[in-house]
Amino acid sequence: MNSSALIMFIVSAVLLWGGLGAAVAFYLRKPEVDHYPEGGEEIDRESF
Q1: Computed from CA positions of residues 26, 29, 30, 32, in that sequence, does the dihedral angle turn out positive or negative?
Q2: Which of 3, 10, 39, 44 has the most CB within a 10 Å radius?
C-alpha cells in the first residue's frame, strides 16, 4: 500500500467514524420523541 492510499484510508476512516460519533452524540442529546404519552389500559389477552 503506497502512501497516498494510506492517507486516503485514514481520511475516510476519520470521516466515517467521526460522522457516526457525531450522530450518536446528537441523538443521545435530543431523542426523536421529547415526551411519551401516558400508557393505556392493559388488555386482557385471555379473553380473545
Answers
A1: positive
A2: 10
Cα–Cα distance for residue pair 19/11, rounded to 1 Å: 12
Residue 33's φ and ψ, nearest 5 degrees, are: -105, 120
DSSP symbol at 30 = S
Position 39 scores a pLDDT of 72
Q: Over the stretch 2-25, which tens digit does the pLDDT of each residue have?
A: 999 999 999 999 999 999 999 889
Mapped onto helix, strand or coil, the DSSP state of residue 7 is helix
